[in-house]
Design the sequence.
């Protein structure tokens, strides 16, 4: 049973556009929601993360929007660039459970120049 | 990759043979994890360790065992490899839980079981 569902599986955006990736979770005990970015042949790397006590977090062109009541969170990439082309994973964990991450299925983003 | 190495980086083996993957860290982090990555499934936790000789099962632990005899090394063993274990395996490390606990991932090991 996949506890974190991610959509879309793939996304093509023009340079300068907005990329939006959505995730939904089931376990209300989750209290930490990171997004990871992965380039081909590399391990995932943390991009941005949020706790459910805030509804939005912004770091540069990357924003997480969090809706606790709907059990959904999303990643917005503003002014998308070709260098943003990568696979993005949402994840969730319970803070006092060894930081074990439950990942979504991933979204392959391609930003066309 | 935050002081994490994985070996081997690539391995091809035959069904029924034992395989051991090694993860080595130089960060002295307490937590270490093994994930497998398969298309459409994201990354799934196999086993994790919260200290020397302290390990626990993850979501997809069947067919895998782990050992951690030193802080810096975390071994993943496939006792008898099967084709369903063909995957890319990632090791990750994390420090004691903080407000925003980050996991750092290694470069991965691509395992093919024929």
Sequence:
């Amino acid at each position: 049973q996949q506890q974190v569902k991610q959509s879309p599986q793939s996304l093509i955006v023009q340079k300068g556009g907005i990329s939006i990736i959505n995730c939904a979770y089931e376990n209300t005990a989750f209290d930490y929601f990171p997004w990871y970015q992965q380039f081909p042949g590399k391990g995932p790397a943390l991009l941005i993360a949020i706790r459910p006590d805030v509804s939005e977090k912004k770091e540069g062109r990357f924003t997480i929007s969090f809706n606790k009541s709907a059990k959904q969170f999303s990643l917005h990439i503003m002014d998308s660039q070709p260098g943003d082309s990568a696979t993005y994973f949402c994840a969730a964990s319970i803070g006092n459970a060894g930081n074990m991450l439950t990942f979504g299925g991933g979204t392959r983003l391609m930003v066309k120049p | 990759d935050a002081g994490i190495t994985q070996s081997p980086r690539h391995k091809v083996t035959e069904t029924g043979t034992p395989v051991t993957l090694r993860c080595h860290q130089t960060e002295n982090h307490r937590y270490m994890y093994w994930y497998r990555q398969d298309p459409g499934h994201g990354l799934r936790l196999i086993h994790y360790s919260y200290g020397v000789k302290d390990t626990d099962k993850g979501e997809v632990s069947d067919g895998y065992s782990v050992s951690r005899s030193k802080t810096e090394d975390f071994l993943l063993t496939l006792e008898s490899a099967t084709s369903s274990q063909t995957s890319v395996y990632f090791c990750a490390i994390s420090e004691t839980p903080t407000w925003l606990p980050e996991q750092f991932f290694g470069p991965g090991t691509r395992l093919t079981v024929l």
